[in-house]
Protein backbone atom coordinates (compact mmCIF):
# COMPACT_ATOMS: atom_id res chain seq x y z
CA UNK A 1 0.00 0.00 0.00
CA UNK A 2 1.16 3.50 -0.73
CA UNK A 3 0.88 6.38 1.71
CA UNK A 4 -1.65 9.07 0.82
CA UNK A 5 -0.18 12.54 0.49
CA UNK A 6 -1.86 14.88 2.93
CA UNK A 7 -2.06 18.60 3.47
CA UNK A 8 -1.61 20.32 6.83
CA UNK A 9 -3.57 18.61 9.62
CA UNK A 10 -7.27 19.50 9.50
CA UNK A 11 -8.93 21.16 12.46
CA UNK A 12 -10.73 18.74 14.75
CA UNK A 13 -14.41 18.46 13.77
CA UNK A 14 -15.72 18.90 17.29
CA UNK A 15 -13.52 21.97 17.88
CA UNK A 16 -14.86 23.53 14.68
CA UNK A 17 -18.42 22.93 15.88
CA UNK A 18 -17.73 24.80 19.11
CA UNK A 19 -15.98 27.61 17.23
CA UNK A 20 -18.98 28.07 14.94
CA UNK A 21 -21.58 28.45 17.69
CA UNK A 22 -21.00 32.12 18.49
CA UNK A 23 -21.27 33.33 14.87
CA UNK A 24 -24.14 30.90 14.35
CA UNK A 25 -26.13 32.45 17.20
CA UNK A 26 -25.36 35.88 15.76
CA UNK A 27 -26.64 34.86 12.33
CA UNK A 28 -29.78 32.96 13.37
CA UNK A 29 -31.80 34.64 16.13
CA UNK A 30 -34.20 31.69 16.39
CA UNK A 31 -31.43 29.19 17.21
CA UNK A 32 -30.82 27.90 20.75
CA UNK A 33 -28.15 25.43 21.87
CA UNK A 34 -29.17 22.71 24.32
CA UNK A 35 -26.56 20.74 26.29
CA UNK A 36 -26.34 18.05 28.94
CA UNK A 37 -23.08 19.32 30.50
CA UNK A 38 -20.87 17.90 27.73
CA UNK A 39 -19.32 20.76 25.75
CA UNK A 40 -20.27 23.59 28.10
CA UNK A 41 -16.64 24.28 28.96
CA UNK A 42 -15.89 25.02 25.30
CA UNK A 43 -18.75 27.48 24.75
CA UNK A 44 -17.77 30.33 27.06
CA UNK A 45 -17.92 33.03 24.40
CA UNK A 46 -21.27 31.89 23.06
CA UNK A 47 -22.70 31.68 26.58
CA UNK A 48 -21.39 35.14 27.48
CA UNK A 49 -22.56 36.87 24.31
CA UNK A 50 -25.93 35.12 24.02
CA UNK A 51 -27.39 34.83 27.52
CA UNK A 52 -30.30 32.44 27.77
CA UNK A 53 -29.67 30.83 24.40
CA UNK A 54 -27.22 28.14 25.55
CA UNK A 55 -29.25 25.92 27.85
CA UNK A 56 -27.54 23.28 30.00
CA UNK A 57 -30.05 20.80 31.42
CA UNK A 58 -27.45 18.89 33.45
CA UNK A 59 -26.83 15.17 33.12
CA UNK A 60 -30.42 14.52 32.02
CA UNK A 61 -30.33 13.24 28.46
CA UNK A 62 -34.06 12.48 28.24
CA UNK A 63 -34.76 16.04 29.36
CA UNK A 64 -32.21 17.24 26.81
CA UNK A 65 -34.40 16.01 23.97
CA UNK A 66 -37.63 16.97 25.74
CA UNK A 67 -36.46 20.56 26.14
CA UNK A 68 -35.41 20.63 22.47
CA UNK A 69 -38.86 19.39 21.48
CA UNK A 70 -40.51 22.10 23.55
CA UNK A 71 -38.32 24.78 22.03
CA UNK A 72 -39.15 23.54 18.55
CA UNK A 73 -42.88 23.57 19.32
CA UNK A 74 -42.44 27.19 20.41
CA UNK A 75 -40.91 28.10 17.04
CA UNK A 76 -37.25 27.90 18.00
CA UNK A 77 -34.52 25.98 16.15
CA UNK A 78 -32.68 23.84 18.73
CA UNK A 79 -29.14 22.56 18.21
CA UNK A 80 -28.67 19.69 20.64
CA UNK A 81 -25.25 18.35 21.58
CA UNK A 82 -23.61 15.59 23.61
CA UNK A 83 -21.83 12.28 23.02
CA UNK A 84 -23.58 9.99 20.53
CA UNK A 85 -24.46 7.34 23.09
CA UNK A 86 -26.20 9.96 25.25
CA UNK A 87 -27.78 11.83 22.33
CA UNK A 88 -29.25 8.90 20.42
CA UNK A 89 -29.26 5.69 22.45
CA UNK A 90 -30.17 6.81 25.96
CA UNK A 91 -33.02 9.20 24.99
CA UNK A 92 -34.18 7.25 21.89
CA UNK A 93 -37.82 7.24 23.00
CA UNK A 94 -37.74 11.03 23.37
CA UNK A 95 -36.11 11.40 19.95
CA UNK A 96 -38.90 9.26 18.51
CA UNK A 97 -41.75 11.04 20.32
CA UNK A 98 -40.74 14.56 21.34
CA UNK A 99 -39.25 15.35 17.94
CA UNK A 100 -40.49 12.78 15.43
CA UNK A 101 -44.06 12.17 16.60
CA UNK A 102 -44.54 15.89 17.27
CA UNK A 103 -43.23 16.49 13.72
CA UNK A 104 -40.83 19.25 14.76
CA UNK A 105 -37.26 19.90 13.71
CA UNK A 106 -33.93 19.97 15.50
CA UNK A 107 -30.26 19.53 14.72
CA UNK A 108 -28.66 16.81 16.84
CA UNK A 109 -24.87 17.17 16.85
CA UNK A 110 -22.98 14.27 18.39
CA UNK A 111 -19.38 13.70 19.35
CA UNK A 112 -17.55 10.48 20.09
CA UNK A 113 -18.62 8.61 16.96
CA UNK A 114 -18.36 4.82 17.24
CA UNK A 115 -15.38 4.49 19.59
CA UNK A 116 -13.55 7.84 19.79
CA UNK A 117 -14.02 7.79 23.57
CA UNK A 118 -12.68 4.25 23.81
CA UNK A 119 -11.21 4.89 27.26
CA UNK A 120 -14.72 5.71 28.51
CA UNK A 121 -15.80 2.12 27.97
CA UNK A 122 -18.90 0.76 26.27
CA UNK A 123 -21.18 3.44 27.76
CA UNK A 124 -19.44 6.01 25.56
CA UNK A 125 -19.49 3.96 22.34
CA UNK A 126 -22.33 4.13 19.81
CA UNK A 127 -21.66 2.39 16.49
CA UNK A 128 -25.42 1.84 16.02
CA UNK A 129 -26.38 5.53 16.18
CA UNK A 130 -26.84 6.06 12.44
CA UNK A 131 -28.89 2.87 12.14
CA UNK A 132 -31.15 3.99 14.99
CA UNK A 133 -31.72 7.49 13.63
CA UNK A 134 -32.26 6.16 10.10
CA UNK A 135 -34.99 3.87 11.41
CA UNK A 136 -37.10 6.91 12.32
CA UNK A 137 -39.06 8.73 9.59
CA UNK A 138 -38.09 12.17 8.34
CA UNK A 139 -34.45 12.33 9.43
CA UNK A 140 -31.37 13.36 7.46
CA UNK A 141 -27.97 12.03 8.56
CA UNK A 142 -24.72 13.86 7.80
CA UNK A 143 -21.33 12.27 8.52
CA UNK A 144 -18.74 14.93 7.60
CA UNK A 145 -15.06 14.15 7.19
CA UNK A 146 -13.56 17.63 7.52
CA UNK A 147 -14.03 20.70 9.73
CA UNK A 148 -15.05 22.90 6.79
CA UNK A 149 -17.82 20.45 5.99
CA UNK A 150 -19.01 20.69 9.59
CA UNK A 151 -19.28 24.47 9.35
CA UNK A 152 -21.13 24.38 6.03
CA UNK A 153 -23.59 21.72 7.17
CA UNK A 154 -24.18 23.37 10.53
CA UNK A 155 -25.07 26.76 9.04
CA UNK A 156 -27.22 25.19 6.34
CA UNK A 157 -29.22 23.11 8.77
CA UNK A 158 -29.53 25.92 11.32
CA UNK A 159 -31.38 27.83 8.62
CA UNK A 160 -33.65 24.86 7.90
CA UNK A 161 -36.62 23.25 9.62
CA UNK A 162 -35.99 19.51 9.36
CA UNK A 163 -34.79 16.79 11.70
CA UNK A 164 -31.05 16.36 11.23
CA UNK A 165 -28.35 14.22 12.80
CA UNK A 166 -24.81 15.61 12.37
CA UNK A 167 -22.26 12.99 13.44
CA UNK A 168 -18.81 14.29 14.45
CA UNK A 169 -15.77 12.06 14.63
CA UNK A 170 -12.18 12.32 15.75
CA UNK A 171 -11.19 10.70 12.46
CA UNK A 172 -11.00 13.14 9.56
CA UNK A 173 -9.83 13.65 6.00
CA UNK A 174 -7.10 16.14 5.08
CA UNK A 175 -9.29 18.24 2.78
CA UNK A 176 -12.99 19.00 2.40
CA UNK A 177 -15.34 17.65 -0.25
CA UNK A 178 -18.78 18.77 -1.45
CA UNK A 179 -21.57 18.25 1.10
CA UNK A 180 -24.55 18.52 -1.21
CA UNK A 181 -26.08 15.16 -0.35
CA UNK A 182 -24.76 13.52 -3.51
CA UNK A 183 -22.30 10.74 -4.22
CA UNK A 184 -19.09 12.08 -5.75
CA UNK A 185 -16.56 10.07 -7.72
CA UNK A 186 -13.13 10.65 -6.16
CA UNK A 187 -11.05 8.08 -8.08
CA UNK A 188 -12.07 7.26 -11.64
CA UNK A 189 -12.17 4.00 -13.52
CA UNK A 190 -8.64 3.95 -14.96
CA UNK A 191 -7.47 0.38 -14.52
CA UNK A 192 -10.71 -0.53 -12.76
CA UNK A 193 -12.73 -2.00 -15.59
CA UNK A 194 -13.92 1.29 -17.03
CA UNK A 195 -16.71 3.58 -15.93
CA UNK A 196 -18.78 0.72 -14.51
CA UNK A 197 -15.99 -1.27 -12.89
CA UNK A 198 -16.06 -2.20 -9.18
CA UNK A 199 -17.02 0.73 -6.97
CA UNK A 200 -16.15 1.43 -3.33
CA UNK A 201 -18.31 4.03 -1.56
CA UNK A 202 -16.65 5.68 1.44
CA UNK A 203 -18.77 7.53 3.98
CA UNK A 204 -17.46 10.68 5.68
CA UNK A 205 -14.11 10.34 7.47
CA UNK A 206 -13.45 6.88 5.97
CA UNK A 207 -12.49 8.36 2.58
CA UNK A 208 -8.73 8.60 2.98
CA UNK A 209 -8.54 5.23 4.71
CA UNK A 210 -10.36 3.76 1.70
CA UNK A 211 -8.10 5.55 -0.77
CA UNK A 212 -5.01 4.12 0.91
CA UNK A 213 -6.59 0.68 1.28
CA UNK A 214 -7.53 0.43 -2.40
CA UNK A 215 -4.54 2.24 -3.94
CA UNK A 216 -3.39 -0.92 -5.75
CA UNK A 217 -6.83 -2.48 -6.31
CA UNK A 218 -8.84 -2.21 -9.57
CA UNK A 219 -11.69 -0.16 -8.10
CA UNK A 220 -13.23 3.27 -8.40
CA UNK A 221 -13.89 5.24 -5.21
CA UNK A 222 -16.88 7.47 -4.47
CA UNK A 223 -17.71 9.48 -1.37
CA UNK A 224 -20.64 11.03 0.44
CA UNK A 225 -21.18 12.92 3.68
CA UNK A 226 -24.92 12.20 3.66
CA UNK A 227 -25.60 8.47 3.83
CA UNK A 228 -29.28 8.93 4.73
CA UNK A 229 -31.31 9.49 2.70
CA UNK A 230 -29.02 7.82 0.19
CA UNK A 231 -28.35 9.45 -3.17
CA UNK A 232 -30.01 6.55 -5.00
CA UNK A 233 -29.90 8.23 -8.40
CA UNK A 234 -26.19 8.93 -8.03
CA UNK A 235 -25.50 5.37 -6.90
CA UNK A 236 -27.33 3.93 -9.89
CA UNK A 237 -25.40 6.18 -12.26
CA UNK A 238 -22.03 5.23 -10.78
CA UNK A 239 -22.73 1.54 -10.15
CA UNK A 240 -23.83 0.67 -13.67
CA UNK A 241 -26.02 -2.16 -14.94
CA UNK A 242 -24.39 -5.02 -12.99
CA UNK A 243 -22.92 -3.43 -9.86
CA UNK A 244 -19.98 -4.80 -7.92
CA UNK A 245 -20.07 -2.51 -4.90
CA UNK A 246 -18.50 -2.13 -1.44
CA UNK A 247 -19.80 0.41 1.08
CA UNK A 248 -17.38 1.38 3.87
CA UNK A 249 -18.82 3.17 6.90
CA UNK A 250 -17.36 4.28 10.26
CA UNK A 251 -20.41 2.91 12.09
CA UNK A 252 -22.42 -0.34 12.31
CA UNK A 253 -21.79 -2.65 9.39
CA UNK A 254 -24.81 -2.98 7.10
CA UNK A 255 -26.38 0.33 8.11
CA UNK A 256 -28.04 1.57 4.95
CA UNK A 257 -28.08 -1.85 3.27
CA UNK A 258 -31.82 -1.55 2.69
CA UNK A 259 -31.40 1.78 0.89
CA UNK A 260 -28.61 0.36 -1.28
CA UNK A 261 -30.73 -2.69 -2.12
CA UNK A 262 -33.73 -0.52 -2.97
CA UNK A 263 -31.63 1.67 -5.25
CA UNK A 264 -30.34 -1.39 -7.15
CA UNK A 265 -33.46 -3.54 -6.93
CA UNK A 266 -33.74 -4.04 -10.70
CA UNK A 267 -30.06 -4.86 -11.26
CA UNK A 268 -28.05 -8.04 -10.61
CA UNK A 269 -25.52 -6.91 -8.04
CA UNK A 270 -22.86 -8.02 -5.58
CA UNK A 271 -22.60 -5.80 -2.52
CA UNK A 272 -20.20 -5.84 0.45
CA UNK A 273 -20.81 -3.75 3.57
CA UNK A 274 -17.77 -2.91 5.71
CA UNK A 275 -18.21 -1.25 9.10
CA UNK A 276 -18.15 -1.94 12.82
CA UNK A 277 -19.18 -5.61 13.09
CA UNK A 278 -22.51 -6.13 14.80
CA UNK A 279 -21.85 -9.66 16.00
CA UNK A 280 -18.81 -8.83 18.14
CA UNK A 281 -18.21 -6.41 20.99
CA UNK A 282 -14.79 -5.41 22.28
CA UNK A 283 -14.48 -5.63 26.06
CA UNK A 284 -11.11 -3.91 26.31
CA UNK A 285 -10.33 -0.21 26.28
CA UNK A 286 -7.41 0.66 24.01
CA UNK A 287 -7.19 3.67 21.71
CA UNK A 288 -9.51 4.55 18.82
CA UNK A 289 -6.77 3.31 16.50
CA UNK A 290 -6.74 -0.02 18.36
CA UNK A 291 -10.50 -0.31 17.93
CA UNK A 292 -10.31 0.52 14.22
CA UNK A 293 -7.70 -2.22 13.72
CA UNK A 294 -9.66 -4.72 15.79
CA UNK A 295 -12.81 -4.03 13.77
CA UNK A 296 -10.98 -4.15 10.44
CA UNK A 297 -11.59 -0.46 9.77
CA UNK A 298 -7.96 0.58 9.37
CA UNK A 299 -6.48 0.63 5.87
CA UNK A 300 -5.10 -2.90 6.14
CA UNK A 301 -8.43 -4.29 7.33
CA UNK A 302 -10.45 -2.53 4.65
CA UNK A 303 -8.03 -3.75 1.98
CA UNK A 304 -8.35 -7.35 3.16
CA UNK A 305 -12.15 -7.21 3.00
CA UNK A 306 -12.34 -5.50 -0.39
CA UNK A 307 -9.63 -7.65 -1.98
CA UNK A 308 -11.30 -10.86 -0.78
CA UNK A 309 -14.64 -9.59 -2.10
CA UNK A 310 -13.15 -8.92 -5.52
CA UNK A 311 -11.67 -12.41 -5.50
- Spans of at least 5 consecutive residues whose pLDDT stays below 50 are 1-10
Biggest sheet strand line-up: 2-1-3-4-6-5
End-to-end separation: 18 Å
CATH superfamily of the largest domain: Thiamin diphosphate (ThDP)-binding fold, Pyr/PP domains
Order of helices and strands: HEHEHEHHEHEHEEEHEHEHEHH
Beta-strand percent range: 15-25%
Question: Which structural class do the helices and strands define?
Answer: alpha/beta
CATH third-level topology of the largest domain: Rossmann fold
CATH class of the largest domain: Alpha Beta
**Helical proportion, percent range:** 25-40%
Q: Mean pLDDT score, rounded?
A: 93
DSSP summary: helix tally:
12
- Calculate Rg over CA atoms: 19 Å
Largest sheet, strands/sense/barrel: 6 strands, parallel
CATH architecture label of the largest domain: 3-Layer(aba) Sandwich
Shape: globular
Please give the number of β-strands. 11
**Number of structural domains:** 2
Explain how this protein is built:
This protein is of the alpha/beta class. It folds into 2 domains: 13-167, Thiamin diphosphate (ThDP)-binding fold, Pyr/PP domains (Rossmann fold, 3-Layer(aba) Sandwich), CATH 3.40.50.970; 184-310, Rossmann fold, CATH 3.40.50. The chain has helices at 13-27, 44-49, 61-73, 84-89, 92-101, 129-134, 147-158, 207-213, 232-239, 257-263, 288-294, 299-310; strands at 31-35, 54-56, 77-83, 106-111, 139-142, 163-167, 184-187, 199-203, 220-224, 244-252, 270-276. It has a 6-stranded parallel beta sheet, sandwiched between helices. A 5-stranded mixed beta sheet has the order 7-9-8-10-11, with helices on both faces. Strand 1 (31-35), helix 2 and strand 2 (54-56) form a beta-alpha-beta unit. The radius of gyration is 19 Å and the shape is globular. It starts with 12 loop residues before the first helix and ends with a helix.
Amino acid sequence: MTALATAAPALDLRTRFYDELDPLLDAYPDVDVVLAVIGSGYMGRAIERHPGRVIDVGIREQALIGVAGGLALAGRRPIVHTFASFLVERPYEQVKLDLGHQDVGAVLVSAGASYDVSAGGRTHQAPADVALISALPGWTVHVPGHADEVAELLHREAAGTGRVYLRLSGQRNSRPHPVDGRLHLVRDGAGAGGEHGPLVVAVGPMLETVLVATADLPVRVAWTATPHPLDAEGLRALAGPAPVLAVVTPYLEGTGAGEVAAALVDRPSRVLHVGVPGETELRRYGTPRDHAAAHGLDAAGVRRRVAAFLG
